[in-house]
Amino acid sequence: MPRRKDISSILIIGAGPIIIGQACEFDYSGAQACKALKEEGFRVILVNSNPATIMTDPLLADATYIEPIHWESVEKIIEKEKPDAILPTMGGQTALNTALTLDKKGILEKHNVVLIGANREAIDKAEDRQLFDETMQAINLETPASGIAHCMEDALKVQKEIGFPCIIRPSFTMGGTGGGIAYNISEFKNICEKGLELSPTNELLIDESLIGWKEYEMEVVRDCEDNCIIICSIENLDPMGIHTGDSITIAPAQTLTDKEFQIMRDASFKILREIGVDTGGSNVQFAVNPENGKMVVIEMNPRVSRSSALASKATGFPIAKVAALLSVGFTLDELKNDITGGLTPASFEPSIDYIVTKIPKFAFEKFPQASPKLTTQMKSVGEVMSIGSNFQESLQKALCSMEEGLNGLNSVRDNASIIPEEILTNELTIPGPKRLFYVADAIRQEWSLEKIYSLTKIDYWFLDQIKELLELEKELSEKNITNIDEEYLTKLKKKGFSDNRIGNLTNSSEDDIRSLRISKNITPVYRRVDTCAAEFATSTCYMYSTYDDDCESNPSNKKKILVLGSGPNRIGQGIEFDYCCVHASLAVQEEGYESIMVNCNPETVSTDYDVSNRLYFEPITTEKILDIIDIEKPDGVVIQFGGQTPLKLADVLSEKGVNILGTDVDAIDRSEDRERFQELVNKLNLKQPSNSTAKNADEAMEKAEKIGFPIVVRPSYVLGGRAMQLVNNLEELERYLNEAVEVSNSKPILLDSYLTDAIEVDVDVVSDGNEIQIGGILQHIEQAGIHSGDSACSLPPYSLSNEIQSVMTEQALNIANELNIVGLMNIQFAVKNNEVYIIEVNPRASRTVPFISKAIGNSLAKVASKAMIGKSLSEQNFSSKLPNGLFFVKEAVMPFDKFPHVDPILGPEMKSTGEVMGIGPNFGEAYAKAQKGANKILRKSGKVFISVKKSDKKYLDEFVPAIIESGLEIVATSGTAKYIKDLGYEVTKINKVMEGRPHVVDSLLNNEIDLVINTTEGSQSILDSASIRQSALRNKIFCTTTMFGAFAIIEALKGSEENWTYTTLQELNK
């Protein structure tokens, strides 16, 4: 059936900011959908609030709106653009829920817009827990014993029937948000309360517990002619009880018999038919009882999902692209498989002759108050994927990709001491992010596999595989480098042992093992991911390394550039860096080079098969990169776009004579090494806050007293402000030194004077080595001391004088000149009392690059990449001029709702997972839109609670009359209330939590407060007031913890949402 002729324009709804449970896999699927539909001649309109994505690049859609994904905003865009159809299956749960709301409110009917990809009935049947259960019963498929609740009373009735433990899952949420496992009535009530609050339909499904059952997923695609194919099966190494996004997963499934696979395959097709998904990809989850083989259906997603991205990268089959084309009427047999160059149709089920392993990445170190235990609510912030010829190779490659200093199945034991039985039993029974390593240590401590299985319910097949690796490790540790022969070393490499791991176990260096390996001619071969197990030739160069006979790499003799990706998403290094890597790859292709991408993140656009000429899905480690360089012999390597991941390899690549493009490696050291940076500051007559470096605790205490408190402390060489803290006195510093970091000669800590009440500014610079230009000057809205990744910021600056901007511009140009920057550089300044201080310099791409690029209509990463291969800025006609009369505001999006026991206060350590952008004719509208995009609701009337620290009281003179004029009444705690009263304004005094009931938290819980302004300092005060911020978050009450943020709210309250303007990026940058 050819494409529909009744549709000419399609609105695609994106997924919004990166959050836990909904990450950049939707950038990948959305980007594929935009490209595919545009190529077919449709006018593609996109709405997405996330500026950090490739998807929101103006080149991808015909009309790109970076606007809040709320039905009111989308309705305005529908009114303006008049699309024929909406495709809601590419933007995760956010897009589905928004489309459903538009439908339920009659907006689609009013504007004559149809839903494609999934209809409302199919979405309801899959997402509404009760309807889904009834649908499964109609086709004789079992689901867990369960009940539906719309209030606490219902929930308690269901629980009585089901018993404990039970699993609570809210309807229409993503990543298991609001769900959990309850073992007692108190836990049950807590989870239900949160779940009812977070479900848009106030609906919970309460299931019997299937903890310990095996979990499988099927990725399925179906077209309107009822052609169904399985893309791949996925098996969770972890049993039921852990969200699949937090589980280690393997594709294809390893422990299913062929008969069991066929039963699951048939069930998947029945489910898609009955639910009514007839144009696109879906994901079906099953649980199997290992005791008797009983199979039940857990859930299905009627859209592309996190698992779709994994399945696409695992097989090479472009699920999102195919799903987008099926949604406009094509059938699977009409579509060609790109990977085989059209030799096979898309209706051929992929078959793979390798093993794929995905391991999730967590950020519990950022949230010490949060429980680091894994349940049915997703908590991981990213993931890695690896490909190997066997499970052991695939697993070890994935572990090396994690960016956690792992080189294999590292032990968690300290200095080879035995882990006490009680601790080991606890870690195996109650899963945490390191359970796999505790399993390995249990085997090292000679626990039987039966005992480990009884505690973990991890299948014996996986336990046997891990045990074999550990037996090899033990054998290897008794050898030295001189008695490892060619056959034995080849065996180790085939099992996935890294050179670094072999070196560790034989007390030799990674370099020694590499030399030994090469001397014995043991080098990897590269196999292609081709969807057909090498049955047909493939035209795409999507490869992985293994140790075998035939190499399929076939490198060309063309000029080529290698781009190193950014590895797994994590807090501090997110999708912004993937954006830069993609633009680097596209830029070098435009200049006639072949581009080669290396990355290990399955969620991203950079690992899409058609972004670069050649793609290596490999860990970004010294060993793997040098192996690729040996075979490809690139003309240059780009390392400045992937964050810290590739930068860590700078020295070793330089030593090996690799041509690193752009800024010299020494400039990185000059900006990151404390003493060398000091020399640069002095040479250029720049001002810097007083600072010092300490190599032990006593020295730190002594130097801190000299600098004077408050002080920002942090370890050297970090990204994302890892273990960074603001300390106010010696006692707090001592606690930090004892609890947060170890200090030594090789790991000094840095002490910086904290500039109270300073404005922080980010300046991005692009240079070709001769001409240097400012990309953008971003004024932070929260004052200095809040990590730059967590602060909202404005482009252009909204309150900095032209004179100050000129001073910063001059200083930035001088620094770029001194460091001989070629490519990108980011500088952070602080402005206090009209003096400019330099905070830090990063001679690489920063997380602000995509945001600035969208605002100026010019990709800084692309411009910088071309500069790095010799094309000057003037040859590129580069201009960073902003559109007239517009403000662009970036707001950070926090994951606090996933960690209810964490204090949602901002500080020097980065905690945000993503960002949104607001665009408006004035700062207030842009800021208000950014808040709405971040799902922070600004109420326009009611009561504002104010409680500010002593040093912030001076700001109340201006703030109080302004907030009263905005129409809010003030309530405040005693000290702040007295200050406001003395100013002559009305205020109602309210008790602090320690002062007796009713207190401020009671008022928040009773929804009597509509806005919270709460600034505090000192660890005790922060602790005392944490419940205020937590209650505000839980009750969705807007809360700011800085005075500069409070003033921005005043600006946002001035405008009215009805008058917001909606303009495409294409219109802005004509």
Molecular structure report:
The protein is α/β, with parallel strands linked by helices. The protein has a seven-stranded antiparallel sheet with strand order 14-13-10-11-12-15-16, with helices on both faces. It has a seven-stranded antiparallel sheet with strand order 31-30-27-28-29-32-33, with helices on both faces. A hairpin with a 2-residue loop joins strand 30 (822-832) and strand 31 (835-842). The protein is globular and about 80 Å long. 56% of the residues are buried.
Strand order of the largest sheet: 14-13-10-11-12-15-16
Number of helices: 37
Mean pLDDT: 91
Flag low-confidence runs: none
How much helix is in the residues?
Answer: 25-40%
Shape, per Cα inertia axes:
globular
Q: What fraction strand?
A: 15-25%
* Through-space gap between termini: 38 Å
Give Rg in angstroms.
28 Å
Task: Indicate the structural class.
Answer: alpha/beta
Largest sheet: 7 strands, antiparallel
In short:
This protein is of the alpha/beta class and 1070 residues long. 36% of the residues lie in helices and 19% in strands.
Descriptive labels:
alpha/beta; seven-stranded antiparallel β-sheet
Q: How would the blueprint of this fold be written?
A:
Layout: E1 9-13, H1 25-39, E2 43-47, E3 63-65, H2 71-81, E4 85-87, H3 92-104, H4 107-110, E5 114-115, H5 120-127, H6 129-138, E6 146-149, H7 152-162, E7 166-170, E8 180-182, H8 185-198, E9 204-208, E10 214-222, E11 228-236, E12 249-251, H9 258-275, E13 280-288, E14 295-301, H10 306-315, H11 319-326, E15 355-361, E16 382-388, H12 391-400, H13 421-429, H14 435-444, H15 449-456, H16 460-477, H17 486-494, H18 499-505, H19 510-519, E17 525-528, E18 541-546, E19 560-564, H20 575-590, E20 594-599, E21 614-617, H21 622-632, E22 636-638, H22 644-647, H23 650-655, H24 665-672, H25 674-683, E23 691-694, H26 697-707, E24 711-715, E25 725-727, H27 730-739, E26 749-753, E27 759-768, E28 772-780, E29 793-795, H28 802-818, E30 822-832, E31 835-842, H29 849-856, H30 860-868, E32 887-893, E33 914-920, H31 923-933, E34 942-947, H32 956-965, E35 968-972, H33 974-983, E36 988-989, H34 1000-1005, E37 1011-1014, H35 1019-1034, E38 1038-1040, H36 1043-1054, H37 1065-1068
Parallel strand pairs: 1-2, 1-4, 2-3, 4-5, 18-21, 19-20, 19-22, 20-21, 34-35, 34-37, 35-36, 37-38
Antiparallel strand pairs: 6-9, 7-8, 7-9, 10-11, 10-13, 11-12, 12-15, 13-14, 15-16, 17-18, 23-26, 24-25, 24-26, 27-28, 27-30, 28-29, 29-32, 30-31, 32-33
